[in-house]
Amino acid sequence: MKNKAGTMITTNISWHDITPGGMVYGGGTAASFKTGDWRTMKPVFKADACTQCLLCAPVCPDSAIPVTDSKRLEFDYDHCKGCGICFKVCPFGAIDFVKEEK
Amino acid sequence: MSIRDRLSGNEAIAIAMKQINPDVLPAFPITPSTEIPQYFSQYVANGEVDTEFVTVESEHSAMSACIGSEAAGARTFTATSSAGLALMFEMLYVAASSRLPITLACVNRALTGPININADHSDSMGARDSGWIQIYSENNQEAYDNFIQAVKIAEHKDVMLPAMVCQDGFITSHAVENIELIEDAAVKTFVGDYSPEDYLLNEKDKLAVGPYDTVSFYLEHKRQQAEAMINAKRVALEVAAEYEAITGRKYGLFETYKLEDADTALVIINSTAGTAKDAIDALRNAGKKVGLLKIRLFRPFPKDEIAEALKHVKAIAVMDRAESFSAAGGPLFAEVRSAMYDCAEHPAIVNYIYGLGGRDVRTTDIESVYTDLDTIVESGNIGETYRYLGVRE
Ligand code: SF4
Ligand code: SF4
Which residue has a Cα nearest atom 4 of ligand 2? Predict the structure, then answer.
């Protein structure tokens, strides 16, 4: 995240240079915010049990189940917060839900 | 060419709003400010303005709608009083910290309880630390003039803060007085278009407003917000000078009345200043050196200028039309006395809580305060600083 002058906003930025009211310039900046490290539980994808029914991807509140060519891919662990909704929704037991080990 | 008219304070504000023709006006009715959105909704119905008038279910929603539309890039006004302002409380802070120059007409009314619909300043004084610019008005003319100027102060690029323009409920909001209006086109030219640097409807430069702020950045954002309020003092004077050029009416950070050679002085906000001027004229005729300082800008608080204007006075009474229940005096007293601390020789300063819940203040009440100040000067004994005016013992 940068200010208008192009200075990166880090914990060294002075009050003169910070953006007014914390305005965030540019779109889609949430992608660079790694929310995955908040996780205490973790979903595990078992590709061999998956039928690609795609019930899981749209219910993920963090858009952490990428889909390409009508197929879901591995979890995006940078953003998955480990809520377990996908695990509850999967009708085919293709998602495990385990304790996050760090 | 100015236009002579006879208007209530509420209608004067509504006409100022009509002349500016804002993009959005969300409002919820509450006595005594109800007439402002009521008049304005007629202008909308008659096609006299292009404004999107948003009817909401509460003042919390009114201020929330103001925040959304102002962030989108739309010039936005609203009006409220008393409990309505209190219900906006949370959102007032969001508007200020998000640096959204909304302009609000605050028609001062007592806060419950006991429930009361008449004038005092407990509503806007409760919001004094919310980060809004506060401008106070003695009469209808000032309410009109201050509202037009407030829009320009708030939207200045070095400020970008919301502003509330206050006047006394019923006393000026409902009393009809002679007034001089500026022509519509001149008002529009004076205020200009609202063209913020950053706004949500700008499809070219994407933007997010009002994000969560972590401990590493919140202090810097607050310091930056404080700088905007510091700047507002200079900008208010610049805007006043421009306003004087087109109207001939002079505004400053505050107004002084016969203060230059005064031995004793009052500091007052809003309509009671008019009563005090009458009392001062009578006392001056009787040879007494009495004067007045009437607050216009309360936020930002022009502490240095106030101290400079009052430092030669022997005894000062700061008049608070609001309690703060500090058991030590009202909010204006605390600020004025703090401002005087840096003077080499402090005048004696006492506080009077007066006029709560619309209690009438007569010239004889004001004269009694000057008599009390004379006693302090003569005896050299200040006595209790926290006093009530006109309360039945
Ligand atoms: S656990 Fe929750 S956040 Fe993670 S992928 Fe599943 S639904 Fe999304
Ligand atoms: S819900 Fe289960 S089976 Fe369906 S796509 Fe997701 S992981 Fe595969």
Answer: A53
Kindly state whether A27 is in contact with chain B, defined as any CB-CB distance less than 8 angstroms: yes
CB of A6 within 8 Å of any CB in chain B? no
Q: Are B83 and B108 in contact (CB under 8 A)?
A: no
What's the rounded Cα separation, in Å, for the pair A75 and A96?
12
One-character DSSP codes across B328-344: S--HHHHHHHHHHTTSS
pLDDT tens-digit map of A32-86:
888 999 899 999 999 999 999 999 999 999 999 999 999 999 999 999 999 999 9
Closest CA to B170 of B116, B249, B124, B102: B116
For CA atoms B44, B194, B153, B182, the dihedral sign is negative
- pLDDT of B1 higher than 70: no
Structure tokens at B75: 């010039």
Ligand 1 within 6 A of CB of A83: yes
Supply the residue whose CA is at minimum distance from atom 2 of ligand 1.
A83
Q: CB distance A21–B220 less than 8 Å? A: no
Domain B254-388: assigned CATH number: 3.40.50.920
Regarding the domain delimited by A35-99, which CATH topology (the fold level of the hierarchy) does it fall under? Answer: Alpha-Beta Plaits (3.30.70)
Give nearest CA residue, ligand 2 atom 3.
Answer: A50
Task: Identify the residue among A13, A19, A25, A29 best suited for mutation to test binding to B, counting B beta carbons within 10 A and taking the highest.
Answer: A19
Interface test with A, best of B215, B224, B230, B231 (most A CBs within 10 A): B224
Q: Where are the domains of chain B?
A: 3-247, 254-388
Task: Map out the domains of chain A as residue ranges.
Answer: 1-33, 35-99
Q: What is the ipTM for the molecules in this complex?
A: 0.90
Question: What ligand 2 atom has the least distance to the C-alpha of A45?
Answer: 7
Q: What are the structure tokens assigned to B247, written together?
A: 């109207």
Q: CATH topology of B3-247 equal to that of B254-388?
A: yes
In CATH, B3-247 is 3.40.50.2300: no
Give the model's pLDDT for residue B79: 98
Question: Residue B107's beta-bridge partner residues?
Answer: B167
